[in-house]
Amino acid sequence: MIQQYLGISPDKLIKAGWETLYMVGFSLIIGSIVGFFIAIVLWLTRKGGLKENPLLYTILNGFINIIRSTPFIILLVCVMPFTKIIVGTRAAIVPLVIYTAPFLARLLETSLLEVGGGIIEAAQSMGATTFQIIVHFVLPEAFASVILALTTGTIALIGATAMAGYIGGGGIGNIALTYGYQTFNFPLMFATVFILIAFVWIIQSLGNRLSQKRRTHQ
């Protein structure tokens, strides 16, 4: 019945769903690691930061602004040769990471900046090192905001994976483009949109709940 209505077998939809989850999960892990590192460096080297460095901050800040201002579909095309060098195929993981890491870095930097200066001063008065201040004071205090930042980044990443279907990256986006848009199969297009909305709703609800739970225990 599903195949008759959508013009595609349920197996292909399920496979596309798993491909989307794989792309989101893998890209999110790598992007979060890189984004965390960049965010911490930005937080440390900003004006008034613990390791103020205007030159390094300006370079990183400019890099983030350039990537974030580039539409993802254009970024896909631009990094395609670079992707082939790394993985030998037109895999979507590389452009997704390049897109996600700076985006998460900016969100995570904002989360770190929400931590009050009084907490940092208290840590310094106790003789804490820069590493200890970050790990034992700043990150625990900003954790609830970090959860929401990662939630927002994950949702943006889901939208990016949908566009990754343009280069044959697989997933729901590829199904919508190949079997939906190109064949004017509107029921299938609506079905893929519904699946993506379900993903977003689940992730946003989970992120909100975890963040709220963290705030109530602080």
Uncertain runs: none
Fraction of residues in helix: over 70%
Structural class: mainly alpha
Largest β-sheet summary: none
pLDDT averaged over residues:
83
Backbone CA Rg? 20 Å
| Share of residues in strands | under 5%
Write down how many β-strands occur, each being a DSSP E stretch of 2 or more residues. Answer: 0
Overall body shape: elongated
What is the helix tally?
A: 10
Order of helices and strands: HHHHHHHHHH
Quaternary organisation of the protein chains: single chain
Query: Ends: how far apart?
Result: 51 Å
Key features?
single chain; 218 residues; mainly alpha; 10 helices
Describe this entry's structure for a reader.
The protein is mainly α and 218 residues long. α2 (10-45) packs across α9 (171-181). It has 10 helices and no strands.
Briefly, what is this?
The chain has 218 residues and is mainly α. It has helices at residues 2-6, 10-45, 54-68, 72-78, 80-87, 93-113, 117-125, 130-163, 171-181, 186-216.
Give the helices and strands, then pairings.
Elements: H1 2-6, H2 10-45, H3 54-68, H4 72-78, H5 80-87, H6 93-113, H7 117-125, H8 130-163, H9 171-181, H10 186-216
